[in-house]
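Appendix B. Chain record.
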Amino acid sequence: QGEALTGTLTITLIDMGETTSIQWEYVVGGYSRFPLKDIAAAVDGVQTEQLTRLAALFPSRVEDAE
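C-alpha cells predicted for this chain:
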C-alpha cells in the first residue's frame, strides 16, 4: 500500500442456466519502486482465496478458466 498503484477488481456473475460463471478481472497500474512480479504470487494467493470463497456460495461446480 506504500506504492503509487491503483487496482480495480471487476467481478461479473453470468447466469448460465443451471450454473453461474464468475468472470474475475484485476487490473493494476501506476508506479512501483520494485517489479510487480515480486509480489504477484502473494496477490494471486489472496485473489484465489477470495474467488474460492465467492464460488462456494453457489451450488454449481467450479471450473478453472485457464
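Further analysis of this model is presented in Appendix C.
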